[in-house]
Amino acid sequence: MVVIAVNILYIKIDDQKEVASTDITDHLTFLGLTESPSIVNNYRDDSQQDGQIWSYSRYGQTTITAKFLLQFFDRKDFKMAKHEIYRVFAQKGIFRLRTGVEPDIVRYCRASSFEIKSEPEEVNYCTFEVPFENPSGMRFSKLHTDEMKDEDFLDLNMNMDEETPSYHFKGQNKFSILNDSDIKIDPVEQRHDLKITIKHNGGKFTVKNTTTNTSWTYNQNLSGNDTLLLKGRRTFKNNNPDSANTDYGYITLAPGKNNFEVTGADDLEITFSFPFMYLG
């Protein structure tokens, strides 16, 4: 079992090893993150009508601010600590951030410029903030659904009144999956991360989400050794492009329970892999 301490920021840059804020330098205390959703509304003008006409809304880029307290003994100690902090946070890569309070929720962002100053009246301490740009405006579950176990769902504070959610089904013509996200998952219009893996021994079949009224049909024969991967409108058969043998449909997931129906394949084995997405 891994014990996660409260008031720690965990930082992973690109493919590097994850580090804790307590390991960056001595006497550095993480005070917390501030973040909130950003909704961008777009309007158009009509020269003969007062005001503007709404066109669409979308979630915009957000700023995540990490707050810290740094304590030091003297000016030399302050200079050394400041260098160690910049060496971690002043990097160009993609930062994955998670906290000890919510260790199973991550953000993917880039660091912005920041300054660490010690005022004369602050003899042996200072506070500073590190801003991060979050281009997606979202937070994500650390694991994808096909990687989660019972304890992972509980750690996300999911309300499981019945049984543990399942994202792998075999030989079922009707089943349901839970999208615990705050928003609809749309792998085409919003390019959200949704991968559906399918195995079937037979001919044409259709997978339909009756909740969102979206479906996808495969028109050719498959053997039991074949594997299909659906990523938005793109289909791959045994890792080779195979969209031409589909109807170019795609599947979306509404927040909450999604009901599915399978026609033409009683033996279908299907797995849904995606991270939950949260607004704030």
For this entry, give a set of tags:
280 residues, mainly beta, six-stranded antiparallel beta sheet, 21 strands, 8% helix
Provide a quick synopsis of the model.
By secondary structure, this protein is mainly beta. The chain has 2 helices and 21 strands. Strand 16 and strand 17 form a beta hairpin.
Mean pLDDT level: 91
Classify the secondary structure makeup into a structural class: mainly beta
Approximately what portion of the residues adopt beta-strand conformation? 35-45%
In N-to-C order, the SSE pattern is: EEEEEEHEEEEHEEEEEEEEEEE
Give the terminus-to-terminus CA distance. Answer: 28 Å
Total beta strands:
21
* Main sheet makeup: 9 strands, antiparallel
Give the SSE layout:
Blueprint: E1 9-13, E2 19-20, E3 28-34, E4 39-45, E5 52-59, E6 62-71, H1 75-89, E7 95-99, E8 105-111, E9 125-134, E10 139-141, H2 150-155, E11 168-170, E12 174-179, E13 195-199, E14 205-209, E15 214-218, E16 228-231, E17 234-237, E18 240-241, E19 256-263, E20 269-273, E21 277-278
Antiparallel strand pairs: 1-2, 1-7, 3-6, 4-5, 6-9, 7-8, 8-9, 8-10, 10-21, 11-20, 12-19, 13-16, 13-20, 14-15, 14-19, 16-17, 17-18
